[in-house]
């Protein structure tokens, strides 16, 4: 068999829980893709912010190594810049004879010169295009249903910001269709004498949550389940979370249900874009030799823990992302609990393409898991992520081991959750004396990850005013 084609579909702000078996989200195309492939329930982002996560996907590196620690457009030109000496997986695919095309949201670095990163063909959407894309669907105040729209206002001095809204402007006339249209044109003209890789990347379902009426009305708003942790009191968690929760404290349960309906509706609209691309693969006869990957850069709260957006907190709603893979050589109709990071897709896609590897300690290929999850699942039972703050710098490192999740906080007390017994992450066990050994063990593993990946800032924290951890960098209990 010739080298497989690759279609990578990247959503923005789509939490993995949206595709759980009991989810109320309508997403028939993603679920059909999963039925013909493998769904990774414990996939996660290495950092729950767009630019760092997407840069990790491209390089296989954790953010402290590729240099993008927050969204690229908020930093000065000499800060938060993607390090150009780090190879990208698209470059490796080019070296293996692939034609590469990238369409839609870029948001990794600000030059928009995709050819420098291995993309032969591309129509990237940068920050200005992001703003225009968000405005499409509004057009004028009359384009939004006033009964189904809400602006977030206050405190004094802040811009009024559209939180969610319902529009009669159809998807084909809004920004959501632009990456699909460009990718379809590419797929219909794809070379027949060489393999290709096509990325379709989106701003949806992230904010502003403007959704078409047709998708919104597929949901019975009054019957939508509110998050079990909506009114989390954070009695045993860092005070920063309480401060974040105050921003949205005035939203009623009915307003949160409307917000969820808009969010779910946008996922339904994203699902339809995937369906359009899959139909083209079928029509052109390319489906049989194409590996299709559906994923997202990070998740989104939409009421969980009383939060919105995705920039504060270590919780699963923003770290757990969807990951569905289907195609030649991939297991079919399988759900796995393996823990795979978004950055692990970099070495994985390279290996599936038979290209020259990018050998870094930050990530590893999961191609063997995709081929035979029953045999290889246990080798993927841990995960590691980092957070450097968004506009307000702070240090946070997260380690998953089986059902347990430990959060080292450089700004407050640590957190420990048993995700099996407490999936809503409402009870912090880090201060429980019975868990002291576990805390030390998991903190030691964080130090190991810091050492292996060269995270020097925290490794050099022996200074006595920085001794917050239960066990130090030398890992001596």
Topology, element by element:
Blueprint: E1 5-12, H1 28-35, E2 38-40, H2 50-59, H3 63-66, H4 89-95, E3 99-105, E4 121-125, H5 127-135, E5 150-152, E6 161-167, H6 178-188, E7 196-205, E8 209-212, H7 213-216, H8 239-246, H9 253-284, E9 290-296, H10 316-319, E10 323-326, E11 334-336, H11 345-353, H12 367-371, H13 373-376, E12 382-390, E13 392-401, E14 404-409, E15 415-418, H14 436-452, H15 456-459
Parallel strand pairs: 1-7, 1-9, 2-11, 3-4, 3-7, 6-8
Antiparallel strand pairs: 2-10, 5-6, 9-10, 12-13, 13-14, 14-15
Helix pairs in contact: 4-11, 6-9
Describe this structure in words.
- With 477 residues, this protein is of the alpha/beta class.
- The protein contains 15 helices and 15 strands.
- Strands 4-3-7-1-9-10-2-11 form an eight-stranded mixed sheet, with helices on both faces.
Could you give a quick summary of the protein structure above?
By secondary structure, the chain is of the alpha/beta class.
* β-sheet strand percentage: 15-25%
Shape: globular
What order do the strands of the largest sheet run in, or round the barrel if closed? Answer: 4-3-7-1-9-10-2-11
Mean pLDDT: 92
Q: Report helical residue fraction.
A: 25-40%
Number of strands: 15
Helix vs. strand class: alpha/beta
Sheet with most strands: 8 strands, mixed
Number of helices: 15
Radius of gyration: 22 Å
Uncertain regions: pLDDT < 50 for 5+ in a row?
Answer: none
Helix and strand pattern: EHEHHHEEHEEHEEHHHEHEEHHHEEEEHH
* Amino- and carboxy-terminal Cα gap: 53 Å
